[in-house]
């Protein structure tokens, strides 16, 4: 445009102009216009170059932001999968390059959308799982058939998140039974990076087997040892940890499943102390000891267990009897070496019956799991447990997923004093395939051999021996 103006000025007819004196007002005015024109001619190329450079820089920044958001989203997926459905709140949420920083951001971690507000550091995510199962059996006891069945093993829906960095929550319900069941429903206040208290309906931590999420076990069901655990109830929990140790303790009321109107409720106190003498990227030593005391109030006490297959009958069963209190002590150990994980536990429970002799019940198990595809479970030191399996390469994305082989032997003795609730062992073999971090297909074979099951006489026999084979599909988010 400036060039056209100059050409027009140069080609127009030239008229005779009067002489302009140097220093006059007209002279100064013309000089100012000439300087302005030359300034425009000089700066135009630089302005164009600057605009081009600014566009290039803006495009580069946007590309870098997109890559960073992709990496953050992938990291959130890995962290969520490594933690499993557990149930601990996970910090997630990624702002897109064009989003309003003051608005909530969403990111996908595994199969669940997750939301966050960076300015308040609050976050929210849906959580849940469903498991479907088929089971068949064979019997070594003449005329005894342990059945064949299919079931929806678990359907759980809930949410977890945080109001601030120091206050988080979990709320989850179980829809798989005839009644809606309560799972984790609590709020937790983090007093520091190493100490927290939680209030609500949650687990009393008394064993490694029980603390590990049922989504992350190497087998379809927990060991016989788990029948001595306290399960979930309303209470106040306390957790803290040092450099190589951690402590979980709590005071709880009666289980919601046992609550009766007009009945005096009992109470429970539990503590679990864990020591980690070695914890590195490839090796973990875990040792622990646990104890609890239960004052029963007006309720009866019963110990029962299915032989590590949920659709079998409770072939171990003490029956219900009035009791004053229950005491328990247990020991646990685990060692992880790369993709190999070994763990074992032993526990003894003492029951002070009101009208029967005092009884001592003993349980224990030992197991080994090998991730054939080379992955390694993460270890959460604050709760002394191992997390889920995250495939190194996911199926359908250039990989085949993760494969795990597991072996376990369990033992239970419920024959003591006036009680004959069964004495025996199980041997279980498990095979798991994890196509993706939130998908799992499993197969278990369980052999059981039990005698002295006289208290309830399930199916009319005091001795039971047979095999169960089950397959399960699982999705978690």
TrEMBL record:
Pfam family, one: Porin_O_P
Record key words, sorted: Coiled coil
Keyword Cytoplasm annotated: no
Ranges in a coiled coil: 47-88
SUPFAM superfamilies in the cross-refs: Porins (SSF56935)
Gene3D superfamilies: Porin
Signal peptide: none
Top-level division of the source organism's lineage: Bacteria
Protein name: Phosphate-selective porin
Native species: Arenicella xantha
